[in-house]
Amino acid sequence: MSSSLSVHLLDVAATRALVGSRNDQLLQVIRDDFGDDLTRDDDCFGHEIERGAPTAYEALRAVVHGGPFSESEDHAFQYGYAYKRLCSLTGTFLDNSCFTPHRGDWLSQVDQGLKALGITAVSVEDFGYGALPAPLPYTHTPGCGTWTPEDIARALEQFEATKRAVDESGEAPPLEPEIVDAVMQCLGWMRRAEEQPGFGVIGFRS
């Protein structure tokens, strides 16, 4: 079974602030402009909704209002997808071609490639095993992780230090071509974020 990674460039603090913001105007805009998307999601998860899971709009409203949330852990996925919807509507999609689809331990392999280049401040595996912002309940799927502006600044510093070391020694870490491509894609995300103060990357694995 394959997985996908959805990656967004956005103002991290502003996006997190939407959780519990009680912004009913935002909810109305989403309902008016993206009602068909909400309906399609409800069709996709119709069986779970019949068993008590919130609809896409109900989950979105709970996220924006900071609750209430279903007491069933089986329904928590809807709040994860609602937060993903907020990120997709307020942020910019980033090229994910090296990560969608992916199988097995691909994210871990890319992390090893990052580490080989001295980059430890960020991890693509975090997009699969990180946490949604409080007070959203934990859900395994979709996984969610955040690279803050501080994380990104540190990661780029680490990469530049490795580049200087390679230039001096003339020896680059041996990496498979597909790992190099994925690492370069990650660096591209970080460089775009670096250009905009306060911006970072929020990713979802599903």
From TrEMBL:
Pfam assignment, any one: DUF7691
InterPro entries documented for this protein:
DUF7691 (IPR056108)
Its name, as the record gives it, is: DUF7691 domain-containing protein
Top-rank taxon of the source lineage equals: Bacteria
Q: What phylogenetic lineage does the species belong to? A: Bacteria, Bacillati, Actinomycetota, Actinomycetes, Kitasatosporales
According to the entry, every stretch annotated as the DUF7691 domain falls at 1-205
